[in-house]
Amino acid sequence: MEQKVCSRCVMDTTVSDIWFAEDGECKYCKIHDEMERRHPLNEGEAKLKSIIEAIKRSGKGKKYDCVCGLSGGRDSSYTLLKAVEFGLRPLVVSIDNGWGTAIAEENIENACRILNLEVIWVKFDWEEYKDLQRSFFFASVPDVDSPSDFAIYAQLSKTAKEHGIKYILNGHSFRTEGSSPISWSYFDPVYIKDVQRRFGKIKYDNIRTIARMTPWDLVKRTFIHRIKEIRILEYMDYRKPEVDKILKEKLGWKDYGGHHHENKFTHFVQSYYLPLKFNIDKRKTELSAQIRSGHISKKEAEAVLSRPYSYDSAIVDEVIARLGFTKVEFEAIMQAPNKSYKDYKTLQPVYKLLRFPINVATHLGFLPRILYLKYCK
Ligand SMILES: [Zn+2]
Hints:
single chain; 377 residues; mainly alpha; Rossmann fold; five-stranded parallel sheet; 52% helix; binds zinc ion
């Protein structure tokens, strides 16, 4: 099939759930425009101010008023810095799934020391996480980050609930990162459990060190405990080079996103597993977001994409060995027919059925709007 590319960004038909509007623009450009209408930068400051006030009110008389996940990366570090500058009192949670880097850890320690914040360090048991991680490779799906992404979501929710905190700050921004297509990265509790049930050695419900959640927990989190997720960067004009400078000056932060410095698992997935097995180039999401935000031109993005994602075979071998696969076993996974979340049990049918209440919940601020746009539309 010939590849069709969006008339505005660099997303194309390698994304299986993409559609194009009559003007030739893709689903993800349309999502961006709706997010832009909801978060216009000229109103950002005023909106953010009222959100910050609400967070402060919710935390009156308590030690903390928000939970902040910190990976040591640019987005979460900047979110934390801004939170403190706005006068919030975050409880920091740092989660290590076994693939963290020394630079990331140093960034977390420096940030919390300088900002004088307490950190809860959560470390997954490697045998448990390895088993969960292997299941997703056996499932032959692209979203091998999902067990970790979901566990982080579950852990932050759990910590918020335990401390009676109503807000979780999230470092995502549609302007710089874009929204990852659901065919590339999908997660929900039913999906994780089904994949683990089919391919794992450890029963999902017996996993101890990795936070879990049931669909009922999701409902309780949203409508009973009323824990809200706020993406503060979406209210700001967030530009990487300037942010890097600020982080270096104020938090002694180091960039580990550069080649060979990112975590080895991410390198393995993005430069080897996804492009070679699924023809997925994750750089397209971020580059497309930056085109839409006017940070780079489409030409610049195309120049980046014309250079194939190169991988370091020593890292690839190391990751495969650490996951407990032989080279032959992993080659069989690379050759196995490609699957997606659609081949497993998920909450997707329920999301479609509940699209109206979910839509309302995103308008009321219980859920981020992007969830409705991505999962229900
Ligand atoms: Zn597009």
